[in-house]
């Protein structure tokens, strides 16, 4: 922090060095065309060796530290009473400032258990914004997801530094009319589907105050916590003088229950639920051995448990967590220089393209974000993720639920990519923007009922992919 440059504008500077690498493969464009067609234009279905820069997700693919890898070698492989688990449990208590921890194999397993225990058919679950798997679990258990976001949340361009905040007036109003029917209030720190947008600490404190007064349970999803902590420190004046550790303590003072995907939060694979309330802990505990595994591993490997323990310390180290959001901001800045529409302000997790603005000549039912994802792969070998209408599910009458905001996410797994790789992405996608009129829409050829974005297949709704490939060859010649 605080490094000034002599000749250059500020740019993000990594406070780590790379000591292990993985060689990458960039297929020629004709092979990329074959691969994306075979994958049904769904980037989840591409093989990793068909992908050049994998910007699908940050889940389980952040770069681990030397200390994490070293800790994995020391794991105690016991089914019951593992020393590795004891180390994690004590670190989790210290990190979240709560006394009771339940391990699970990943974030959605926690969503499964929390929904099963707390949601009765017909209940409302209040969210600042939903997440795909969280919503699916809430609905399967008979709950109805109610999102109380501010209008800025779904404006692609905004100056609001905390688009993830819950609208407190709407919260008061729902409590007034529906109080006895609310299962819990879920705050996602920060919000995945609207572009990794953070929640302010002030908002969390207000939400907690209102919920405590009304005896409502506050559940935090802390999967994307590290970016959110960084944004509180950088953007929330009132708390700027505090360290990340001090901010973290104030954040969790506002929750009754916290769950997270450690795949994101601590760069190793697992999940867990934490609470300060013994009765709630006992209620939830029964389901862990049934669905996850014995209480001292919860479906996680002991090696991953050791890496999570170290990762939690690193999650409170400013120099370890600032690289992600700073690279994302730099990528957004470069896109904006070329007029490519991105979500602003830049959030965490990845750089988000506004597919509705990028492909404004397509209709929402042609799946703009899905089509753009497919075109990006063709033009660059980069795998992004559709975060728009395909990631929603159809209404009961079979009609589409058009997403509030139609995004392509270019995730930047923490500490994985270099600035030159980001420049390549910006270059190819800027070319695509200037040739956007060649991109057409998609339609489903295979459509699963639940979480269709994972396994669904789509095809072009008019012949456009080959034309795009031909234009690429004209402009780039034999270049990959
Ligand atoms: N909550 C949030 C905010 C998430 O982003 C995720 C996963 C989960 C819960 C579920 O956790 O994957 O460990 O079961 N997000 C990933 C993504 C899959 O790519 O955004 P999980």
Describe this structure in words.
- The protein is of the alpha/beta class and 480 residues long.
- Helix 1 runs antiparallel to helix 17 and helix 4 runs parallel beside helix 5.
- It contains 20 helices and twelve strands.
- The structure holds ligand F0G.
Index terms:
20 helices, 3-stranded antiparallel beta sheet, 480 residues, 7-stranded mixed beta sheet, alpha/beta, binds ligand F0G
Tell me what portion of residues adopts beta-strand conformation. Answer: 5-15%
Largest sheet: 7 strands, mixed
Global geometry: globular
Kindly provide the radius of gyration, computed on alpha-carbon positions and rounded to a whole number of angstroms: 22 Å
Low-confidence stretches: none
The separation of the N and C termini measures: 38 Å
Strand order of the largest sheet: 1-7-6-5-4-2-3
| Helical percentage | 40-55%
* Total of DSSP H or I helical runs spanning 4+ residues: 20
Task: Write the SSE topology.
Blueprint: H1 29-38, H2 66-72, H3 83-96, E1 100-104, H4 107-118, E2 124-127, H5 132-140, E3 144-147, H6 168-178, E4 182-188, H7 201-213, E5 218-221, H8 225-235, H9 244-252, E6 257-261, H10 262-265, E7 271-275, H11 278-285, H12 287-291, H13 302-314, H14 318-321, H15 323-337, E8 350-354, H16 355-358, H17 368-380, E9 385-387, E10 407-411, H18 419-434, E11 442-446, H19 452-455, E12 457-460, H20 465-476
Provide a concise account of the structure shown.
This protein has 480 residues and is α/β, with parallel strands linked by helices. It is built from 20 helices and twelve strands.
């Amino acid at each position: 922090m605080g490094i000034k440059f002599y000749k250059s504008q500020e740019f993000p500077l990594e406070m780590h060095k790379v000591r292990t690498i993985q060689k990458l493969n960039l297929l020629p464009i004709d092979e990329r065309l074959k691969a994306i067609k075979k994958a049904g234009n769904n980037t989840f279905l591409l093989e990793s060796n068909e992908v050049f820069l994998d910007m699908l997700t940050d889940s389980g693919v952040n770069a681990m530290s030397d200390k994490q890898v070293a800790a994995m070698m020391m794991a105690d492989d016991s089914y019951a009473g593992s020393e590795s688990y004891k180390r994690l449990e004590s670190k989790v208590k210290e990190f979240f400032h709560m006394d009771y921890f339940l391990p699970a194999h990943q974030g959605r397993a926690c969503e499964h258990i929390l929904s099963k225990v707390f949601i009765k058919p017909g209940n409302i679950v209040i969210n600042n914004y939903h997440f795909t798997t969280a919503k699916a679990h809430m609905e399967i258990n008979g709950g109805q997801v109610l999102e109380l976001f501010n209008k800025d949340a779904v404006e692609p361009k905004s100056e609001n530094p905390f688009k993830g905040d819950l609208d407190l007036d709407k919260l008061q109003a729902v409590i007034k009319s529906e109080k006895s029917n609310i299962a819990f209030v879920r705050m996602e720190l920060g919000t995945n589907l609207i572009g990794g947008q953070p929640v302010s600490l002030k908002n969390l404190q207000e939400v907690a105050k209102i919920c405590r007064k009304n005896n409502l349970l506050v559940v935090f999803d802390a999967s994307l916590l590290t970016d959110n902590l960084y944004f509180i420190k950088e953007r929330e004046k009132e708390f700027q003088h505090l360290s990340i550790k001090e901010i973290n303590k104030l954040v969790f003072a506002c929750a009754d229950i916290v769950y997270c995907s450690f795949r994101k939060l601590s760069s190793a694979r697992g999940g867990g639920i934490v609470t300060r309330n013994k009765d709630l802990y006992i209620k939830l505990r029964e389901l862990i051995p049934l669905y996850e595994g014995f209480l001292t591993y919860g479906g996680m490997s002991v090696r991953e448990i050791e890496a999570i323990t170290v990762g939690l310390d690193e999650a409170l180290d400013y120099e370890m967590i600032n690289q992600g959001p700073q690279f994302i901001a730099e990528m957004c800045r470069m896109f904006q220089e070329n007029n490519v529409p991105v979500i602003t302000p830049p959030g965490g997790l990845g750089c988000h393209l506004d597919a509705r603005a990028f492909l404004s000549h397509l209709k929402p039912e042609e799946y703009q974000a899905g089509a753009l994802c497919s075109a990006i792969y063709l033009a660059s070998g980069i795998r992004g993720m559709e975060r728009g209408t395909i990631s929603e599910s159809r209404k009961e009458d079979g009609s589409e639920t058009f997403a509030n905001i139609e995004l392509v996410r270019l995730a930047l797994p923490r500490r994985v990519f270099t600035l030159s790789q980001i420049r390549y992405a910006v270059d190819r996608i800027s070319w695509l923007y200037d040739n956007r009129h060649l991109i057409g829409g998609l339609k489903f050829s295979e459509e699963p009922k639940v979480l269709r974005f994972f396994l669904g297949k789509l095809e072009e709704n008019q012949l456009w992919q080959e034309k795009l490939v031909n234009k690429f060859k004209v402009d780039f010649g034999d270049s990959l």
